[in-house]
Write a structure and sequence with these properties.
With 143 residues, the chain is an alpha/beta fold. The protein has three helices and eight strands. The strands form two sheets. Strands 1, 2, 3, 6, 7 and 8 form a six-stranded mixed sheet that branches. A two-stranded antiparallel ribbon has the order 4-5. The protein is globular. It starts with a strand and ends with a strand.
Length: 143
């Protein structure tokens, strides 16, 4: 499981011209799954993200979490995080979990995140248009 965490001022996702998820201050997550990932992995990373202290406090130190700043999460499924570009110029996605495995994990992960902080989501497998204003920029990758 790989998750790209981007600190954002706001973010939204649109599918077929309709906004399916939208947040203000918080994290835009790009989440990818591979074979062997489990709900335990989702639990561990959701807990880590909920406590991730990457917002500035009153002394401008990176010390505050999502809860501390009243932030939200927008989580987007992103199988391309498992792209392999070692051979040639066309990426291979064989390391990405198949949809019948990844989709339930994505749903579980979003539900687990929502236990900690309000979580919006995209639509698994859809052609999504994601808009965001990256704050910092501040980006962290969790595996």
């Amino acid at each position: 499981m790989k998750v790209v965490v981007q600190r954002v001022t706001h973010a939204s996702v649109t599918v077929d011209g309709n906004i399916t998820g939208e947040i203000g201050c918080g994290f835009l997550l790009l989440a990818g799954f591979t074979d062997g990932d489990t709900t335990a992995d989702c639990d561990r990373i959701a807990k880590k993200i909920s406590g991730l202290r990457i917002f500035s406090d009153e002394n401008d130190k990176i010390n505050l979490s999502l809860k501390d700043v009243g932030g939200e999460i927008l989580c987007i499924s992103q199988f391309t995080l498992y792209a392999d570009c070692t051979h040639g110029n066309r990426p291979s996605f064989t390391a990405a979990a198949r949809p019948d495995t990844a989709s339930p994990l994505y749903d579980y992960f979003c539900d687990e995140l929502n236990k900690y902080v309000h979580t919006e989501r995209g639509i698994f497998g859809a052609d999504m248009k994601v808009e965001l204003l990256n704050d910092g920029p501040f980006t962290v990758i969790l595996e």
